[in-house]
């Protein structure tokens, strides 16, 4: 006899402690004299099953059969046969008498009868699951009979166990032996342990010990009879008491009945081979069997078949038994995606089926696979992950996002595909809250700085929306440096109307982060200009923002007068708390049809949807620029230099290179505009600034000039960095109608701001009309407010 691993322990110890496994509670049923118990590995705590059988001495017949079962189980390997892990034979002494116990450790399983009660399946789902289980047992029996020329000898309900993945597996190999029709000794060896088989499970020739009939019959004759007994017990829900009960076919499905009768034929030679049962039976042709079978041979399918299958799988999974889907299909699908045999469309099916799992099971069965997929170079996989990130993003831990997910996702910011750049941008709504401040400041903001001058207007718009959403996750220093510059210098000056609208809304949503000085000197001057924006939706948002920030200024005024605060308190309240209004903004999907255009006409830029359309016709449309002029002049900056932020590593203060080099004079980086409040004004200057904030009556000639300007096309002027638009409005309009220090040739009609203008610069200013036309030379700096056109490519 083949010698197997044997451990002999003397003394009075129990012997179980010497096993590398812990034996726990037993199941209520098991095959033969075996005891089937739950167990765990002492090394890693993984679950196992422990089968044990005890005898009074080493020559006990049950022990001899058990040794045969251990030997066969160790040497026979098949996906539908129980997997062997470890075995031991331990001899102990109990009250002076020896006791031998054989242990077999296998993968974790439970008896089929117990699993059927636990699942409680009914109707079509029950029949589909039984079909799958019987299909697996039939393959195992066919493997033994046809490929190995072995006979199991006792196929029945007790000899089948179920794995955690709900697979049926065959075990109980105590009676197993070789079968050769021409070799009488082989038949005798099989019959050596035939006494272990219950009489109700024995076919007629075996019950009569008709050795000649057994030798002449095919190798599958005895086991085909056993499969018939298994089918009866499974569908009737009862243990077979006597052979005559097999004639009760009321519980057998009609599609399976003809094959059931052939399996139990009284003539051994006419019994149905289990391999033919798998191939021909109509009963096994159902959705569950076909689906699992396709998944198991997935590597043999071509890409078209895979794609078709995975597109149908989400709807098909809803029709299959839920427990089988979660415990069998989900692991198969996750493994196929992880090792590359599944297409990107399988990700949708995995996430849908994964949504039926509990949070803990999802984190164990699905999430590890998803995290690994982020490192995939397959663009379709990356797109699928980003499109569905809202379904699993909340389950990702901050450490996993920061260390394993974000480094791979960030490559999409600079991808050549605009669609992938936009999806990457949208994914930050989920991932950004889980990033560390170091990653946000050192990496994310640098990418967002570039995306705010992206060639696609929708991406620029959505970048502004994202900044408004993640403002609460930035530290205070980063917020002061980034937000105002991002929204006023770039967003409010964008040529795409929805981008300007997004900038206004972002300012409103983040209003709680700005103090009163920033509101009065940097936000309101830029927003007020947009109240005359060509786009009606932008104008509406601008008036709403002006009302909101004026209300904030009024509240500060009232508090100051009432002496409620000690002074210098930062702005607190906002009609839109935090970034709540931005959370409902939907980011658009790019429609890449033809050449993109920054000036694509948009009917509305509502807070619920922003859609960008590209067309060849749109390239000929020019949108009058309403970008606000720079608040501080070059002279002011020179007089009050501000040190560069030591943490300015996020790229917001950097100038764009390449195609934007010709616009370096625009200097629209986020760190370029320094808050005016950093320089404490003198009392005299404070009075002047207060006068600037008071409304100024517009002269009649000014109204006339404004009307004339609106009747003509908007002039295109280049912006000059040295303009100081608000510093010249230092005092009320003088009484004389003649401008101070100006030549007599300049009239009020030439300069509507002449009545309140500061002394003229040393250079001679040309009339406003001289700057019109595309080929005109850049005009010399003028005093007063000017309309300045700016394209997004110049940012």
UniProtKB/TrEMBL annotation:
Residues 2-284 form the Protein kinase domain. Residues 657-669 have a biased composition (Basic and acidic residues). Coiled coil: none annotated. SUPFAM superfamilies: ARM repeat, Protein kinase-like (PK-like). Residues 603-615, 754-782 have a biased composition (Low complexity). Residues 597-669, 690-795 are annotated as: Disordered. Residues 698-716 have a biased composition (Polar residues). HEAT repeats lie at residues 366-404, 523-561. This is Protein kinase domain-containing protein. It comes from Flemingia macrophylla.
